[in-house]
Amino acid sequence: MPGNAPSRRFSSRVPTLPIPIGDVWVYWECGNRRDISRVRDISMHGLFIETPKPMIKGASTSLHFLVQDGQIRADAVVRHASAGIGQGLKFTAVNVEDARHLASLVTRLRGLHRERSVS
Questions:
Q1: What is the domain-level CATH number for residue 85?
Q2: Whole-angstrom Cα distance, residue 108 to residue 81?
Q3: Which domain holds residue 72?
Q4: Angle CA 98–103–56, to nearest 5
């Protein structure tokens, strides 16, 4: 994104950090495909996951996060895909309790990111 152009995102994404402190993984299903991928960044509205073979834009996906913050399940749709890199997903449904755990995860990662930036 050039210079000071404003982001189109509703909320900013926070990057996940390398092992051991901030690595986040997600199990996902899309059609007949099932996989586990590393989350590159995340917000309360979406995330980007690493996968060498991303799904097509508009594909519906079910997510199950593998995190310490509690059970987080979500439905999402593929918003963009980059072959060999991964796919950006927008959340379409997260139940109330899982949304609380998602908020806890994003808050925890944001704090870890700030600590790392200051160090």
A1: 2.40.10.220
A2: 27
A3: 14-118
A4: 70
pTM over 0.90: no
- Residues 66-95 have pLDDT tens digits of 998 889 999 999 999 999 999 999 999 999
Q: How many domains does the chain have?
A: 1
Q: pLDDT digit string (tens) for 13-65?
A: 767 755 455 689 999 999 999 999 999 999 999 999 999 999 999 999 999 99
Per-residue tokens: 2: 């050039």
pLDDT tens by residue, 102-115: 999 999 988 887 77
Three-class DSSP labels, the chain: CCCCCCCCCCCCCEECCCCCCCCCEEEEEECCEEEEEEEEEECCCEEEEECCCCCCCCCEEEEEEECCCCCCEEEEEEEEEECCCEEEEEEEECCHHHHHHHHHHHHHHHHHHHHHHHC
66 Cβ contact partners less than 8 Å away, ≥ 6 residues apart: 24, 25, 26, 27, 36
